[in-house]
Amino acid sequence: MTDILDLFPQYAEELKLLRKTAREFAQRNFSPELAREYEKKEEFPWELYRKAGELGLLAPSIPTEYGGGGFTTYLADIVVTEELVRAEPTLGEAILSGPFSSHLLYFFGTEEQRKKYLPPVYRGETTFFGAYTEPEHGTDITQLSTIAERKGDKFILRGVKTFITNAPTAKYGIVLAQTDPEKRHRGQTLFIIHTDWPGVQIRKLSGKMGQRASPVGEITLDNVEVPSDYVVGGEKGINQGFYWTLAYFNVSRLGPAAIALGIMLAAFDKALEYAQKRVQFGQPIINFQLIQEKLARMAMLIEVSRSMLYRAAYYVDSYIKFQIDPRAMAAITSATKVFITDAANQVIDDAIQIHGGYGYFEEFDVERYWRDHRVTRIYEGTNEINLLTITDALRRGVWKP
Questions:
Q1: Burial letters for 211-230: b for 16+ Cβ neighbours within 10 Å, e otherwise?
Q2: Other Cβ atoms within 10 Å of 20 Cβ, number
Q3: Is the whole-model pTM more than 0.90?
Q4: Catalytic status, residue 380
Q5: How far is CA 7 from CA 19, 63, 297, 312, 320, in A?
Q6: Does 1 score more than 80 pLDDT?
Q7: Nearest Cα to 292, choosing from 361, 359, 350, 341?
Q8: Residue 160: helix, strand or coil by DSSP?
Q9: Percent of the chain at pLDDT above 90?
Q10: Candidates 14, 42, 380, 384; catalytic one
Q11: Which pLDDT value is given to residue 194?
């Protein structure tokens, strides 16, 4: 069988080995029973996270000097995500969410900031967070209520951030705040924040529909004093926060797409196995044409989604070398994210339908897959916002199919 990695011959062999490592890790450590346990407790799987860190699976495309896997292509991140999530969506997604937003610090942080903050994350010792969303503004980060007021050699931060992945578990992360209100989005800055600093309050948000092993919380900043050397990127990072955040999103929105692909594959695996074993009217239901049609369409959506995702991930390598226009990259990754997460809706729904009434019960897992998937159409920019991003690129003439 042809492997999609053969389309990238310069990386194929090393990525096939990485895929094998990720697959074997999941086979040794994941199980549906363990996933259900963590989901019901709404707890982060620390032990699995640390083991993944030891194998370099938490940041495959980050250089080894910062604790990453040392691969020279972003395709490595996609390969690992696909394998871990396919093996067990709840556990795979939780582990991979641990380093959330740390790539932004790698892209734009100072050398000192990278060496201090990234290795503990990629070794699995702590998680990381990126605090952008606010209760009043949601996806719209052109407007921020979180203020950073400069006082000599430090900043005073005040505000509230919500729906922040890893806020309840992380020792530190980054916060986007307004440093020059008159400039609106042109006057925003990113800061490194420690969760144990005075004035930082974390409230865990419980009762999510899915992805319950991946903790989310609300961060309140009550006159938090932040030394100026905690500005991401140092002094040159002042008022660059909005632009750097968008540049990071141009890459990171492929994360939900990869997770959605992994869940699609998990759902398809369950549906195919069930269709071959379930007997109705004296024969396996895979013999029925309506079931065959569903499986065929599921397989087609998966193949198209995987091709689209790997192509977009390959472009990331050029993008981070400033060889692709940022607005064009935004359109490519937005289109990829929207298509794949929408396709996952159909594939997972068909998997439930093939299971019939059993698909509605947790014992058969596909109902959990649906719940774990649903948020991929919301975070990293809602699909509606990503469609506007695509239109903006088309209107400006910087990208078209």
A1: bbbbbbbbbebeebebeeeb
A2: 12
A3: yes
A4: yes
A5: 15, 24, 24, 13, 21
A6: no
A7: 350
A8: strand
A9: 96
A10: 380
A11: 98
